[in-house]
Structures are given as structure tokens and as C-alpha cells.
Write a structure and sequence with these properties.
Blueprint lengths: L7 E7 L4 E7 L14 E2 L5 E9 L2 H10 L9 H12 L9 E9 L5 E5 L8 E5 L2 E5 L2 H5 L10 H10 L12 E3 L4 E6 L2 E6 L14 H16 L6 E4 L4 H13 L6 E6 L7 H11 L2 E6 L2 H14 L8 H14 L4 E3 L4 H5 L3 H14 L4 H11 L5 H12 L12 H7 L2 H9 L3 H14 L5 H11 L1 H15 L4 E3 L5 H9 L2 H4 L7 H7 L5 H4 L10 H8 L9 H4 L7 H8 L4 H18 L1
Parallel strand pairs: 12-13, 12-15, 13-14, 15-16
Antiparallel strand pairs: 1-2, 3-4, 4-5, 5-6, 6-10, 7-8, 7-9, 10-11
Helix pairs in contact: 1-2, 4-15, 5-21, 6-7, 8-23, 9-18, 12-13, 16-17, 17-18, 23-26, 25-26
Length: 592
């Protein structure tokens, strides 16, 4: 865990409750004050906290607490977070603006309270078996405990192959869970109970009168909040709308000479680093381009597999790792990312295709007709079209985020144990559970709101935010996501689809709000995805064989020779599927 906090470490042991709290510190606020080191206790000594993250509104909360009579001994946000909990209880968590995973211990009763931020920027894993409770920011901290039995969770493996990530609470290991975003946990009298304190589903629709101005103000406010730091701030810069907006606003809100932007080049025609460099020059921001070739990936694969903590189907994790390493080399500790803008405001062309099909075909067609049509055509279709036909046949959900394995590929890959797990715990069940929650909390919500909600509960958190945290903290760099501010996310979901993407024009409202900030050479560029050469990387760096003797094959989760079967079948998804299977196989060999 030392990579997550090289600036301080501490341990608190409470033998009478068999309790140990450990913490490593990455000093971003009040870095010179050792009194802010953790575990951090209140003046009475009864309450002790370990906390990972950053609360941007800690100064406002501190003022409110001081007016209520609380006296502070440090300038850190850590003390504010603890006092907020002691004075407001679990209601405090919804008032913390930023990102956090924390555990508070009552040293008198031995009770523990754990909580995770609203959107899920910071991870928190936990396990409770045989009276042993473990909680940590990284999965491998739990797997490394001598009291933890590490066995693959079969439904978790199937879920990963189906979607490229696990669901909200499941991990790859039996009995090890993730605390859901916006949730707190209490351990008392040998029982664990969890409570949701926040959800992104909005209560009220925004005022339509000044919608564009309101959004522009909210984005600026979110960037301003994310710049709260006592150390220099850096940012990822691709040349797209989201990262460019953050760069422009940051350069206006703080001295641009103190900012550094980082871009990645894969040497492909879609390379955006030239546009990023031009914007950085325009803003007076230092800029650094990191060029990655296949040989860089091959030589660094072992280190990356160690860093990622859990398997990832997304090869861009490697690029973020290289950026974070460069930030660390340059003496930085904070890195802003543009993640979330596309998911909240409908920025993907593929999403617009789904929306058109849903609004014009799927929704107007009676379910019985959809099922009949799906039954007739599903046997003859493959890939995404086949998946959609089968979902129509089975009464399933139309929209599912980008999948590494289509249904037919999954059948080709799963072994006997994998097929049993898929039958007993269908991966789509996790989507159905999220859909039920959405329908109960936003009845009649439009389809774009549902797509955003699903992404916020699944792929965005479990892939992009996990990528930023794990790859950043592997190099002692804290990742921040201004466009996923909890208040901004709620505002976005409350705004009707017809106003966010009128005429199915992707990200139309967001573009209108930020275009006045951006130079023409950014606004006139077509959208480019952050797409590394997966086929070349999968072939050179992850030559997966699915051979007997590997954990996946020997457990019966994956068929022997599945990788060769996928290669022989080919198709537009083959490289993605092979990369997904390869990272899982390599992770199992290194960590189990």
C-alpha cells in the first residue's frame, strides 16, 4: 500500500477489540503538518478515522462546524471529515463534496462505520468471514491478509467476461465485496449492515429558462472545486471537448504557469496530441506528450499487471499508468481527468444509435411483437445484432454498454463451471437490478437518463474511475474528475433528453455551454475516441493460450483452447475478447 501514500504512515492498534487501523498518506492538503497524519483521532481519543481521498468543500464545512462550537487543531480536511461525522452522523456523508473512502472506529464500543463517496471515485473493498472484518482501498490488501482465503468467485468471473468489469458489489473473489458508491456500512455486535445515503437520481428538473448558462456555471464551479490543493495540479489533455474545457477553465482559475498537461500518442491517424499541444501553448500551460508503442506495452506488461489490482478489459489503463508515472516523475500529485462528460451528456455516437432505435422502433413496438421478432431472427444473427435480438426475445434491456464478449463468444469460451455459474447467476441480472432501482426512483425517466444511470452504476465506475484511482495511486498520484461532481451529475440526469441531445445530436447542450470557452481549432474537430491498437497489443503482450494448467482452465471456468477458438472465429470483437481473457488469465497467475 506504500505507493498510495509515500508522505506518511501510521498504525493504531486496539487490542481489547482486536482492531487494527493502518493508513499511508499522500499529502495534498496541509502537507507540512504532521498532525494531520492518520489514523486521526478526535480530542477525546474515543473516535479514530482512516480516510482516503479529498473533500473539496472542507473549508465551508469547517466554518459551519466552528459556528456550532467545534474547535480545530489542524488545517487539514481530515479533521473536518471526522468532526462532520461526529456532529452530524451518517448525514455528513452526503454533505462531503469530493471523493472519499473512510473507516471510523469507536474505540469504546469497537463499532466501525465505513463509507464511500457519492459517485464512487474512491474504491472500498470489504470482507467479513468467521468474525474477521477486513476493509481496504485495494483488493490485494485483503487478498494478502493471512486470514483471507482467496478463491475465485465464479459468477464474478463470468460477469467480467460478459461486461469487461464486475458489478456494483461483486469482485473476483468469494466473500470479498465492494461497498457501493453513495453507501455506508456499520459493523456492530458481529453484524454488518449497509445503508444507501445518496443516489444520482434527481428530485427536481432544472430551470429551462437559462439552461445553457446554468450548465456553464456548474461546470466552472466543479472545476474550481477540483483545483483545491496545496500542491501543483496536472491534467490529462486529449484535445477533445471535455479535457479541453477543464484545461481552459483551470488556466483561468489559477496561474496557468503552475499547470502541466499530459497527452498520450499511439502514433495512429486518430492521434490528438497535436491539437492538445496547440491548446496548451495557447493557454500557457506546460505540455508533455507520452508516446507509446507496442514495445513499450510488451516490456511494461508485468509491472502493469501488478499495478492494476484486479483484471481490466480496458487497455487504456496502460496509457493512464504511463501518464501518472510522468506526473510523479515531474513532482506532481494531483491529476484532473475529463471522465464522465460523455456519459452524463450523451457524447457517444453509439449511444445516439441506441436512442434512435429505442425511441423510433423498440419503445413503440409491443413487447409481444419484439419477442416474436427476436425469436425468429436471433438464431441467424451474430455479434451485437444477435445480442439485441436475443434481448428482444427474452424481454431484456436494449442498451448494454460495450461488451468484450458477445453471447455467442461467451458460449464458446466458458467451461462447465463457467456455464453453471452463468446459468445460476446470469450476468444480465445485475443490469436488471439497476434498472429496477432506476424505474422506482425515476418513473417515466427518458432513455438517455437510463443509459447515463446504468453507466454511472456500472462501466463508468468499475472501469474509468477504477482506472484513474488504481493507475494514478500506483504512482502516488491522486486522480480527480470535475465533470463527475455529484451535484453536476444529478443536474445532468434531471435534464430531459430532448434538451441534452435535441434531434439526437450528441452532447448538443454540453457543446453549447462550453463552445464559447474553446478555440475554433478544438470545436471544429471531429470527435476521436481514445483507442489504442488493441489487436497489436493483445498479440504481442498477452499471447493467451487458455491451456491446461492455468487457473481458469483447471477450475472449469474457461474451456481449454478457448483463445484459439476465438482467434479462429475472428470478427470485429475478437481482439477485445482476447485482451479481456488475457488480462484475467495473467492476473490469476500472478495473484492467486
Amino acid at each position: 500500500m506504500g505507493h498510495r501514500g509515500p508522505d506518511g504512515e501510521g498504525v493504531a492498534e486496539v487490542p481489547e477489540h482486536d482492531l487494527v487501523l493502518e493508513h499511508v498518506r499522500l499529502a495534498v492538503i496541509d502537507p507540512a503538518n504532521r498532525e494531520a497524519d492518520q489514523p486521526f483521532s478526535d480530542p477525546s481519543g474515543r473516535w479514530t478515522m482512516v480516510y482516503n481521498g479529498e473533500v473539496f468543500n472542507f473549508r465551508e464545512l469547517r466554518g459551519e462546524l466552528e459556528r456550532a462550537g467545534v474547535r480545530f487543531t489542524t488545517e487539514s480536511d481530515t479533521e473536518v471529515v471526522l468532526q462532520a461525522f461526529l456532529n452530524w452522523g451518517p448525514d455528513a456523508f452526503s454533505r462531503l463534496r469530493g471523493m472519499f473512502a473512510l473507516v471510523v472506529a469507536d474505540l469504546v464500543t469497537g463499532e466501525l462505520v465505513a463509507a464511500r463517496d457519492q459517485v464512487g471515485v474512491k474504491p472500498l473493498y470489504w470482507s467479513f468471514r468467521g468474525g474477521l472484518f477486513l476493509a481496504a482501498s485495494e483488493l490485494r490488501t485483503i487478498t494478502g491478509h493471512p486470514g483471507q482465503a482467496n478463491a475465485l468467485d465464479h459468477p464474478g468471473v463470468v460477469e467480467y467476461l460478459a461486461f469487461g468489469h464486475n458489478g456494483e458489489e461483486r469482485t473476483f473473489l468469494e466473500g470479498v465485496h465492494k461497498l457501493r458508491p453513495g453507501t455506508w456500512l456499520r459493523l456492530a455486535e458481529g453484524r454488518v449492515e449497509t445503508h444507501e445515503y445518496w443516489d444520482v437520481v434527481p428530485a427536481d428538473a432544472p430551470d429551462k429558462t437559462h439552461l445553457v448558462e446554468d450548465l456553464s456555471d456548474r461546470i466552472e464551479d466543479s472545476v474550481r472545486a477540483a483545483l483545491v490543493s496545496d500542491v501543483p495540479v496536472s491534467m490529462m489533455l486529449s484535445g477533445g471537448f471535455d479535457s479541453s474545457t477543464i484545461a481552459v477553465l483551470a488556466s483561468r482559475l489559477v496561474d496557468p504557469a503552475g499547470l502541466t498537461a499530459y497527452s498520450v500518442s499511439f502514433g495512429l491517424p486518430s492521434d490528438e496530441s497535436d491539437a492538445a499541444a496547440r491548446l496548451a501553448r495557447t493557454l500557457g500551460i506546460r505540455h508533455r506528450v507520452i508516446t507509446l508503442g507496442t514495445e513499450d506495452i510488451t516490456s511494461g506488461m508485468g509491472a502493469w499487471l501488478d499495478q492494476m489490482d484486479a483484471p481490466s478489459a480496458n487497455p487504456t489503463w496502460i496509457a493512464v499508468s504511463h501518464i501518472a508515472r510522468a506526473v510523479h516523475e515531474d513532482g506532481g500529485k494531483v491529476l484532473l481527468s475529463g471522465d464522465g462528460g460523455d456519459e452524463l451528456f450523451g457524447g457517444y455516437d453509439r449511444w445516439m444509435t441506441y436512442l434512435r432505435f429505442h425511441d423510433r422502433v423498440w419503445a413503440p413496438t409491443p413487447r409481444i411483437v419484439r419477442r416474436a421478432g427476436g425469436t425468429m431472427i436471433s438464431p441467424i444473427l451474430r455479434g451485437l445484432a444477435g445480442d439485441m435480438a436475443r434481448r428482444a426475445r427474452d424481454g431484456g434491456e436494449l442498451f448494454v454498454e460495450s461488451r468484450p464478449f458477445h453471447d455467442d463468444d461467451l458460449r464458446l469460451t466458458l467451461g462447465p463451471a463457467g456455464k453453471r455459474a452463468a446459468h445460476a447467476h446470469p450476468p444480465e441480472r445485475s443490469i436488471a437490478e439497476i434498472r429496477a432501482r432506476f424505474d422506482s426512483r425515476l418513473p417515466g425517466g427518458d432513455y438517455l437518463a437510463w443509459m447515463s444511470y446504468l453507466s454511472l452504476k456500472a462501466g463508468l465506475v468499475e472501469d474509468f474511475l477504477a482506472r484513474l484511482d488504481k493507475m494514478g495511486m500506483a504512482h502516488s498520484v491522486e486522480g480527480r474528475v470535475p465533470l463527475l461532481d455529484a451535484g453536476l451529475a444529478r443536474w445532468a440526469l434531471a435534464t430531459p433528453q430532448s434538451l441534452k441531445v435535441p434531434g439526437f445530436r450528441n452532447k448538443a447542450l454540453f457543446r453549447e455551454a462550453v463552445e464559447p470557452l474553446l478555440p475554433a481549432f478544438i470545436t471544429s474537430r471531429p470527435k476521436q475516441g481514445f483507442c489504442p491498437p488493441v489487436a497489436a497489443w493483445a498479440t504481442a503482450a498477452l499471447p493467451v493460450t487458455s491451456a491446461p494448467g492455468t487457473a481458469l482452465v483447471d477450475s472449469g471456468l474457461v474451456m481449454a483452447g478457448a483463445a484459439d477458438a476465438l482467434r479462429a472465429k475472428g470478427g470485429d470483437n475478437a481482439s477485445f475478447a482476447l485482451w479481456t481473457l488475457g488480462t484475467l488469465d495473467a492476473w490469476c497467475e500472478r495473484h492467486l
